[in-house]
């Protein structure tokens, strides 16, 4: 009555009614009761301008229950607001979730609110994909976000999501997002505060990238408030790391503009220029998100997200580098840049161009980028060409267009000498049929009443045949029962890319990859299943990193089962998973996830020259060059990795240094040919290739083939210090990898007793693979240092395949003072050259008792025999010692088969200065020989000797002189080139008569 005479309430309603009740009945009964009461006074509530009624149900010592009844729902309960305080709905911005049907998940922490959203509209053309998204919302009252609280706050949110995604209602591809509103005000300017928060968020993402990938995290949104100075109004801002635009968790900064009366956010705009403004409900999955979900369902990462992973990996690299060295340069402001590559019109031979397009709009399942990485070894930036199969487009299959794009991108990398990475997840060559002919094709039966008798041919009716585009089919005209039929002989179709043309393209890119391996650095990362030509591309690029869920196969297991006529194989991993490809040497490394894979790629790249022909970049290190080597190899079996990288002493628990820089060792091919250890490390910051010898016995395991019931797993023991077929092949492969593209100086720690020459190993081609070691060393173009370590020995054929005369211009051999080298071991040579008779003669010459007994050999025969038998063990040792004296470093050096005998503890500074000198010396020599094609290696060395003077005879001094004399070397090269041109011109002109010679000279001038 009185209320009815009041003026109409404001529109929209703004008032809120709160009341508390004490009730112990079930929540559903409370809700029904309140809804019934509110329905009776609905009109009055509206006339009072009530937009919401909040009911608090007290439960004694337990937390109260909250129920909210809203005007927009005709004062029915809003289930999304259940058991949250009335203001939280707006503070958590739950209205932005309106495009989803929400299910709230219980959480251990009451301040965390987790919702599983099912989109209210289905995905177009993606019926198999659930359109879900998980949202975590939180209001934080902690005031230490900038002073250590960020890590705790964000980790707490991840812990909650980690529990929630295990719920069976959550799809395996469901993306997750986090929104946190931080209530305490921060102090500082807008850009200052936003930059601090951005830095903390960026570092958290980089440090937890693997976990975020596993949780399918696609967005962080942090809402903060900053006060520039006391007495001013706080300015709300948002720092958002989002994958919605394509790049994984790309960070942007925004300023929020609130509604003046309620303080609720109206929209927020980019902080720098206000060009982009947002505040709308979270959209149903975009094309990019649908493609990302499709990639996740098969266990890989969406192809464009790898760019974000690379940036996060660079942050990790720099953080680790700055925390472990005394480098003072600081981290560059920008760590990662990229330009997308496209193929020029006219085909793959026309080259590439930079393109700009929205992420996810590519119609070809092959993409490429030219990336610039600002890394610790190249803080000014280094370029890498990344080629990737997009599994979300046509299952990543290879059609003609994909082959053309791959070829163009790869050629661009090879021709410019830029490292090339291929990210593989594909389904092999694309297959297809001319689908439009399926409903038009008819069958000419042998007997139309009995199809089991077979058919004569497939045909098209005359009118159908005439309607086909010219050249799309080939057919033979037939007249049957007065009707014209066109018997099909060939179906060609109008679509280019459904059959053999794809195989031709596969052959083209296979040849291109093989060629690129010899011209630049190639590396493949298998992030998901890679089939057929996809697997071959990885192998042809030689260096392969394989994710544990990324099999490389030629044919799928289901197709093989059909071929065999029974279910034999149960997964692709049985055919090409890491358990197959690591032990057989196809894959060099295995990683557990894509972030670890990207880390491995960038670490490998760090050992590689910026461009082909350049020296690999050195890096600042805090490990002193002049230090001694603590770990001492012994004659008993030990882990060779400790000799290279160092280790913790098991007794003292102190660090024992190895020869190379601490934490720089990276092993590859660890699961194959285990009697040899190969990898890369740094010496004084300079990258090196390393081959060492396993001194312990190992086992080679050959798996049983499920397709052959007669086979069983075979375990072959392999002795240490011996080359077997697999380890010999591994050695040759590693040498080729170090030489091609990587251009690394090579250290071979030669500790081999020889090759295994048994029947099985000879049958398994140990001789062939041993010869391949010689071939690889002969072609090596960088310095090679062969070193026999302390306690090591190099015997027989093992010496032959690493002798410096194989490549005298590049190879040098050294031996430790405690090392041995010879044709046979002392026991073996004594069996031939110092037999028992020679030992007995030595006894009779040296032993006083035998000398005395020998005065009457007949009478003392038994005593002589007894004395000889008693002395034989010790004289056998004397014989061995005598033979061993022939195998020592002093004789090797005297005979000129080694350059110098070294002491292991002092080997680090020696090899560092020798390596630096050789690297720069070889580069200078190559410069001279390029300037004058007739200049020999020896002559070029003579030029350097003359230029360097006394420094030439000291490695440290010569290395320093070469590093400081770049201008002098260039000037000398120019001088040599001019002199060479003069000689060539004089030679050419000498064959002409005076008039022709003068004519040529006049033309030149």
Concise summary:
By secondary structure, this protein is an alpha/beta fold. 35% of the residues lie in helices and 24% in strands.
Topology overview:
Layout lengths: L14 E8 L4 H14 L1 H6 L2 E10 L2 E9 L5 E2 L10 H4 L8 E6 L6 E8 L12 E9 L8 H16 L11 E12 L2 H18 L1 H6 L2 E11 L7 E8 L7 E9 L6 E6 L6 E2 L8 H11 L7 H20 L11 E8 L8 E4 L10 E10 L2 E12 L10 H16 L4 E5 L17 E4 L9 E7 H6 L5 E8 L2 E9 L8 H20 L2 E5 L3 E2 L1 H8 L3 E4 L4 E2 L3 H8 L8 H4 L1 H4 L7 E3 L2 H12 L34 H6 L1 E2 L6 E2 L9 E3 L7 E8 L2 E8 L4 E5 L11 E5 L3 E2 L1 H15 L6 E4 L4 E2 L3 H5 L2 H13 L5 E5 L4 E3 H5 L10 E6 L3 E3 L3 H8 L2 H11 L1 H6 L7 H25 L3 H6 L5 E3 L4 H25 L5 H12 L6 H10 L1 H25 L3 H11 L1
Helix pairs in contact: 5-8, 8-16, 9-11, 11-12, 18-20, 22-25, 23-25, 27-28, 27-29, 27-30
Strand tally: 42
Biggest β-sheet: strands ordered side by side in the sheet: 5-6-7-8-9-10-11-12-13
Average pLDDT value? Answer: 91
**How helix-rich are the residues, as a percent range?**
25-40%
| Helix vs. strand class | alpha/beta
Largest sheet descriptor: 9 strands, mixed
Spatial shape: globular
Query: What is the tally of helical segments?
Result: 31
Beta-strand percent range: 15-25%
Rounded Rg: 38 Å
**Poorly predicted runs of 5 or more residues:** 1-6
Measured distance between first and last alpha carbons: 113 Å
């Amino acid at each position: 009555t009185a209320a009815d005479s009041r003026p109409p309430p404001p529109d929209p309603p703004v008032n809120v009614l709160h009341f508390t009740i004490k009730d112990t009945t079930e929540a559903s009964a409370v809700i029904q009761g309140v809804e019934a009461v509110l329905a009776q006074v609905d009109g009055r509530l509206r006339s009072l301008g009530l937009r919401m009624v909040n009911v608090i149900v007290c439960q004694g010592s337990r937390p109260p229950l909250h129920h909210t009844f809203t005007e927009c729902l005709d004062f029915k309960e809003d289930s999304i607001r259940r058991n949250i305080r009335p203001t939280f709905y707006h503070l958590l911005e739950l209205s932005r979730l309106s495009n989803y049907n929400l299910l709230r998940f219980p959480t251990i922490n009451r301040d965390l609110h987790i919702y599983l959203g099912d989109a209210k509209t289905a995905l177009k053309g993606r019926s198999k994909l659930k359109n879900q998204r998980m949202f975590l919302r939180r209001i934080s009252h902690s005031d230490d976000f900038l002073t250590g609280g960020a890590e705790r706050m964000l980790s707490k949110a991840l812990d909650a999501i980690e529990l929630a995604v295990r719920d069976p209602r959550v799809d395996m591809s469901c993306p997750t997002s986090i929104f946190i509103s931080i209530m305490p005000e921060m102090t500082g300017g807008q850009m200052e505060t936003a930059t601090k928060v951005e830095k903390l968020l960026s570092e958290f993402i980089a440090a937890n990238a693997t976990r975020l990938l596993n949780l399918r995290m696609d967005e962080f949104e942090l809402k903060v408030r900053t006060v520039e100075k006391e007495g001013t109004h706080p300015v709300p801002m948002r720092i958002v790391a989002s994958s919605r635009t394509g790049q994984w968790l790309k960070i942007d900064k925004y300023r929020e503009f609130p509604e003046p009366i309620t303080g609720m956010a109206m929209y927020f705009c980019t902080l720098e220029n206000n060009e982009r403004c947002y505040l709308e409900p979270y959209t149903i999955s975009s094309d990019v998100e649908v493609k990302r979900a499709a990639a996740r369902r098969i266990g890989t990462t969406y192809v464009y997200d790898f760019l974000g992973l690379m940036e996060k990996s660079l942050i990790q690299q720099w953080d680790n580098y700055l925390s472990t060295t005394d480098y003072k340069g600081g981290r560059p402001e920008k760590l990662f840049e990229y330009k997308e590559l496209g193929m020029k019109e006219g085909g793959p031979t026309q080259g590439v161009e930079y393109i700009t397009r929205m992420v996810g709009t590519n119609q070809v399942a092959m993409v490429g980028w030219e990336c610039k990485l600002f890394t610790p070894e190249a803080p000014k930036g280094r370029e890498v060409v990344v080629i990737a199969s997009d599994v979300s487009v046509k299952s990543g299959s290879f059609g003609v267009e994909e082959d053309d794009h791959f070829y163009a991108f790869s050629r661009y990398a090879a021709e410019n000498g830029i490292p090339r990475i291929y990210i593989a997840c594909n389904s092999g060559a694309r297959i297809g049929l001319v689908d439009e002919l399926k409903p038009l094709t008819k069958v000419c039966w042998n007997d139309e009443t009995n199809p089991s008798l077979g058919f004569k041919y497939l045909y098209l009716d005359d009118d159908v045949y005439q309607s086909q585009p010219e050249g799309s089919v080939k057919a033979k005209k037939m007249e049957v029962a007065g009707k014209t039929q066109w018997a099909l002989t060939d179906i060609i179709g109008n679509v280019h890319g459904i059959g053999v043309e794809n195989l031709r393209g596969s052959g083209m890119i296979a040849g291109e990859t093989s060629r690129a391996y010899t011209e630049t650095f190639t590396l493949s990362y298998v992030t998901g299943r890679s089939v057929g030509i996809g697997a071959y591309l990885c192998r042809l690029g030689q260096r392969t990193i394989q994710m544990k869920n990324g099999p490389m196969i030629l044919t799928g297991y289901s197709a093989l089962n059909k071929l065999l006529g029974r279910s034999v194989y149960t997964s692709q991993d049985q055919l090409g998973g890491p358990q197959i490809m690591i032990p057989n040497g196809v894959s060099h490394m295995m990683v557990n996830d894509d972030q670890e894979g990207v880390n491995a790629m960038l670490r490998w790249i760090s050992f590689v020259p910026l461009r082909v022909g350049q020296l690999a970049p050195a890096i600042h290190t805090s490990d002193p060059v002049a230090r001694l080597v603590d770990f001492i190899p012994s004659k008993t079996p030990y882990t060779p990795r400790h000799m290279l990288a160092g280790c913790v002493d098991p007794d003292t628990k102190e660090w024992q240094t190895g020869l190379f820089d601490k934490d720089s060792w990276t092993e590859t091919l660890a699961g194959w040919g285990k009697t040899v250890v190969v990898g890369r490390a740094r010496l004084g910051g300079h990258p090196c290739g390393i081959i060492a010898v396993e001194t312990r016995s190992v086992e080679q395991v050959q798996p049983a083939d499920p397709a052959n019931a007669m086979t069983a797993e075979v375990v072959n023991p392999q002795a240490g210090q011996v080359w077997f077929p697999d380890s010999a092949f591994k050695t040759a492969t590693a040498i080729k990898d170090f030489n091609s593209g990587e251009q690394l100086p090579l250290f071979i720690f030669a500790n081999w007793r020889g090759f295994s020459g048994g029947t099985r190993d000879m049958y398994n081609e140990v001789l062939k693979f041993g010869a391949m070691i010689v071939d690889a060393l002969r072609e090596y173009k960088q310095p090679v240092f062969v070193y026999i370590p302390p306690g090591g020995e190099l015997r027989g054929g093992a010496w032959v395949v690493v002798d410096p005369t194989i490549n005298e211009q590049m190879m040098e051999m050294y031996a430790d003072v405690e090392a041995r080298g010879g044709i046979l071991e002392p026991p073996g040579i004594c069996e031939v050259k110092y037999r028992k008779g020679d030992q007995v003669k030595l006894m009779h010459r040296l032993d006083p008792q035998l000398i005395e007994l020998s005065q009457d050999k007949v009478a003392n025969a038994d005593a002589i025999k007894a004395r000889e038998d008693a002395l034989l063990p010790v004289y056998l040792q004397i014989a061995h010692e005598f033979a061993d004296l022939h195998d020592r470093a002093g004789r090797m050096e005297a005979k000129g088969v080694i350059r110098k005998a070294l002491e292991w503890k002092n080997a680090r500074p020696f090899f560092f200065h020798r390596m630096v000198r050789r690297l720069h010396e070889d580069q200078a020599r190559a410069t001279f020989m390029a300037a004058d094609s007739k200049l020999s290696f020896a002559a070029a060395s003579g030029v350097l000797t003359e230029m360097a003077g006394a420094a030439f005879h000291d490695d440290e001094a010569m290395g320093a002189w070469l590093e400081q004399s770049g201008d002098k070397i260039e000037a000398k090269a120019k001088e040599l080139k001019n002199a060479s041109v003069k000689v060539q011109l004089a030679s050419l002109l000498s064959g002409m008569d005076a008039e022709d010679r003068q004519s040529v000279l006049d033309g030149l001038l």
